[in-house]
Amino acid sequence: MTTTNRQLWLSVTQAAEVAQRHPVTVRKALAEEKLHGHQRAAGASWRIHADCLEAWLRNEPCPCAAAPTGVTQLHGAKAAS
Ligand SMILES: [Zn+2]
Predict the structure, then answer these.
(1) Ligand 1 centroid to 62 CA: how many Å?
(2) Based on CB atoms within 10 Å of each CB, which residue in 1, 28, 62, 66 is the most buried?
(3) What is the whole-number distance in angstroms between the Cα of residue 14 and the centre of ligand 1?
């Protein structure tokens, strides 16, 4: 196990870098709901959780769906600003 100090929430650009995919591919996956992302409002910029991104890369179900307890909190967390 590696302990990297990576960010938990990624923008589309960052997610594309981490995933080594084209940003267009990431956006498409978000639009098709293959990749779990979050928007503060419709049309707002996407935020992708690192765990969700990893699940997508591995072609695995999103950890939020697999483990509703705990992880849901992350996704249910309201934006402070
Ligand atoms: Zn998720």
Answers:
(1) 5
(2) 62
(3) 16
Structural domains of the chain sorted by starting position, each given as residue range(s) with its CATH number in brackets = 9-76 (1.10.1660)
Mean pLDDT by 10 residues, the chain (81 residues): 69 96 96 88 89 93 62 46 46
What is the pTM assigned to this prediction? 0.69
Q: Distance between CA atoms of 16 and 70, rounded to whole angstroms?
A: 26
Return d(Cα 48, Cα 41) in angstroms, integer.
Answer: 14
The pair of structure tokens assigned to 68 is: 């509703």
Which residue type does 5 have? N
